Amino acid sequence: MSADVAAQRLDGAGMVGVARERVVARLREAEVVAAALAAGRNVLLEGPPGTGKTTLLRALADGAGVPLVLVEGNAELTPTRLVGHHDASRVLTEDYRAENFVPGPLTRAMTDGAVLYVEEFNRVPEETMNVLLGVLSEREMHVPRYGRVTARPTFRMVAAMNPFDAVGTARVTPALYDRSCRVAMGYQDEDAELAVVAAATGGPGPLVARAVRAVRITREHPDLRIGASVRGAIDTVLIATELAAVRGHEGVGEATGLDAALAALTGKVTLADGTARSVEDVVADIWRRAGEELGKA
Ligand SMILES: Nc1ncnc2c1ncn2[C@@H]1O[C@H](COP(=O)(O)OP(=O)(O)O)[C@@H](O)[C@H]1O
Ligand SMILES: [Mg+2]
């Protein structure tokens, strides 16, 4: 157990210190989220996929010296999955006992004083949301046949949501907004994205620049409803480099770059309604245009 957990508080400056080392830019967001958590508040991070939400949270939790318990919000996240269950085979022989309870992520996070990070919160079923809301107000919950679970003082919840995700957003009640602070995480500027991709792929270069420019074009393109995040640029660079090696080429040529971009990006973008072109066609065009804009990578 770290000193901060022993001291039962979250150190805002310590959190930001680690975020500064590991997260490109995003200083304002890091400071505000750290301050909210240090103030004992819960946080709602709102931004599209790939905008560094998980990366930021992981750095802040490490900086505070508390565990990060990560849960993906989806329709299968029942209250039982979140809270825990009694081991069915042991119940048969031993009956229900505290010892045969298998704690779920919420129970573990409360007991360990962790930051519980629920991604895609809007996709969580309503009963599960209600369990979380109850814990946010009471900082404890009653688990049938197990007992009372009390949150350690450092327990916090951070929920992430994609503002462009239509699924279930209506179910996110005002009660959650009322119990959380909201921090928006939009796409970063081109310089920051260049730094993110360079850090993830082994350094800057023309291929990195072209991949970043390409994903940025996807976000504005009239034939696309949803563009790609910086993750698409990272994948393009990594695949192109390996593909060149697979083909026994010295550098990444035009055809290899295009093949990598197609593999990395066509599944990450969504065509706009009424677009007659294929997604391959649109991405190939974007890859060419990114190259032209930068004077060919
Ligand atoms: N500001 C940033 N600093 C460092 N890495 C970042 C940043 N933004 C995104 N990344 C990288 O991009 C990828 C996606 O980031 P992630 O945190 O998983 O996004 P999200 O949780 O918002 O979907 C990861 O590989 C991550 O390392
Ligand atoms: Mg994430």
Question: How do the helices and strands line up, and which of them pair or pack?
Answer:
Layout: H1 3-7, H2 12-22, H3 27-38, E1 42-46, H4 53-64, E2 68-72, H5 79-83, E3 84-86, H6 88-94, E4 101-103, H7 105-112, E5 115-119, H8 126-138, E6 140-143, E7 147-150, E8 156-161, H9 174-179, E9 180-184, H10 190-201, H11 206-218, E10 224-226, H12 230-246, H13 254-265, E11 270-271, H14 279-293
Parallel strand pairs: 1-8, 1-9, 2-5, 5-8
Antiparallel strand pairs: 3-4, 6-7, 10-11
Helix pairs in contact: 2-3, 2-4, 10-11, 10-12, 11-12, 11-14, 12-13, 13-14
The chain binds adenosine-5'-diphosphate (ADP) and magnesium ion.
Please give a handful of descriptors for the protein shown.
297 residues, alpha/beta, Rossmann fold, Helicase, Ruva Protein, domain 3, five-stranded parallel beta sheet, two-stranded antiparallel sheet, 50% helix, 15% strand, binds adenosine-5'-diphosphate, binds magnesium ion
Structural class: alpha/beta
List SSEs in N-to-C order: HHHEHEHEHEHEHEEEHEHHEHHEH
Number of strands: 11
Sequence stretches where pLDDT stays below 50 over 5 or more residues: none
Q: What is the fold-level CATH name, i.e. the topology of the largest domain?
A: Rossmann fold
- Span from first to last CA? 49 Å
Ligand names = adenosine-5'-diphosphate, magnesium ion
